[in-house]
Amino acid sequence: MIGIDVGGANVKVVSGGRADTIYCPLWREAPLGEILSRYDCAEEEDVAVVMSGELADCFLTKMEGIRWIVETVQEIFPGALFYGTDGEFHDSPVPALAAANWLASATYLHSLYPTGLLVDMGSTTTDIIPLTNPASHHGLTDLTRLQKGYLLYTGLLRTTIPAVIRSVVIDDIPTPVSAEYFSASADAHLVLGHIGSAGYTCDTPDGKGKDRESCLRRLARVVCADLDEIGEDGAMQVAGTFWDMQRSMIGNAVSRAKQASGSGFVLTAGVGAGLLASALGARDLSADLGPITDALPAFAVREVLKRNPG
User: Fold this and answer.
1) Mean pLDDT of 17-43
2) Which of 63, 104, 136, 309 has its CA 20 to 30 A from that of 142?
3) pLDDT one-digit tens code per residue, 136-190
4) How remote is the C-alpha of 118 from its chain's centroid?
5) Integer Cα distance of 279 and 217 in angstroms
């Protein structure tokens, strides 16, 4: 059985004990079908799918995106089934398929950690999901999850720096940041040692290198400076201020969700699992599930279908 999570920036595929994350920006007409065709699937083998890529702005509406993803996947896997926010599997495009990947994770993990709170940090977003009663989340959209504080549009790699901070102290002077896409969260996390160049899996804002100096140069641009103007210390101040604020945003949302849901402990997943586990005093799910944790929704939707065949 194969599990697939089609996001806007990445497609994640779990097959057997292997989990792959492939950069696949849908807004650039990425070859989703070609990527999926690399995976062998026996005719009788089940394929379970979740998505969030319908929100990519190459689609005029989410429903247009849902139709395109369903049709593209079914060209490769005709019998594929798609999990929706109604907690059901579907074989055709319906509105409930929009952004149901988090619910697949919650449904799978509930039986293992019924009093837990899942924090799944991906490249673009962070999902905060109480596991206490997954059925109570049925029907939640991205909009309602944003309003409840269950969806934070901040991630390990693709978040623009000014989306999180509005100013930084440079040479003891409070300095506003420019609202330009000069630098991304991956730059900050790389220079802070949270990821290496191999973990910088998305495009860079300027299309240039993923080495430390290139990241520092982009961070300097956030305050309209060259690196030799503010030095490494100044660029590191931008990175540190960003992470302090990002960590605080996530921590505050986790505290509110934990209190509201009565969750007893916090679990982390996604590419930021280890970083958040340390920051939040939480348990990194990779200790239990291994590297599949980086592609948790793809793994989870496969396991949910196994439990509910037909």
Assistant:
1) 88
2) 309
3) 999 999 999 999 999 999 999 999 999 999 999 999 999 999 999 999 999 999 9
4) 13
5) 26
CA-closest candidate to residue 119, choices 263, 229, 9, 219: 263
Helix H or strand E encompassing 182: none
Angle at which helices 227-261 and 273-280 cross, to 10° = 70
Q: How many residues does the chain have?
A: 310
Q: What local confidence, expressed as pLDDT, does residue 44 receive?
A: 57
Show the domains of the chain with their CATH numbers. 2-102+292-307 (3.30.420.40)
Least Cα distance to 105 among 299, 309, 310, 306 occurs for 299
Q: Tell me how many degrees the CA angle 105-245-106 measures, rounded to the nearest 5.
A: 10
**Hey, what are 247's tokens?**
């960590």
Categorise residue 224: left if φ over 0, alpha if ψ from -120 to 50, beta otherwise. Answer: left
Q: For 47-115, where are the E strands, in sequence order?
A: 47-51, 81-83, 89-90
Q: What is d(CA 284, CA 273) in angstroms, rounded to the nearest whole number? A: 6
The tokens 């990527």 sit on which residue?
35
